[in-house]
Every structure is written in C-alpha cells, then in structure tokens.
User: What shape does this take?
Amino acid sequence: MAKTKSNPRKPNKKWEKYDTSGGLKRKNKFCPKCGEGVFLGKHKDRENCGKCGYTSFGGKEAPAKEEKASAPAQEEKK
Assistant: This one.
C-alpha cells in the first residue's frame, strides 16, 4: 500500500485575539454566561459563543433611552 502525504498543520492564530501595542487589549468581547476566558465570535450580524451557544444580535449597541426625570411627590406629614 502506498503512503499518503499528511497535510501539514496550520499555525495557531491565538495571537490574533489580542492587541499588544501599548498593553494587552482583547479584540473580542467575553461571553456573559461563560465568563472571562471565553470569547464571542464576530459575525456579520451577530456575536456568538462557541461553548454555550449564547448569541447577541445586532453589532451596534442600542441607544440608551432617555428617562424623563419626574419631580418626586412631596408629602407633608402633620
């Protein structure tokens, strides 16, 4: 039987998850369910956790709603 050529292993790309210029900065967000150490994968329209399956849709943060500051009712006690 003839020997088959094995495919060479691809290099590990863990260095792409960090930015080391001026200090350590993570490029992706952490999963809120799994905690620190598990990154969310970036897709075109969502971010997904490969471990637990958590998905957040919409790459942009929703603008915070402005709450109207209502004057508290002052009660007089006699």
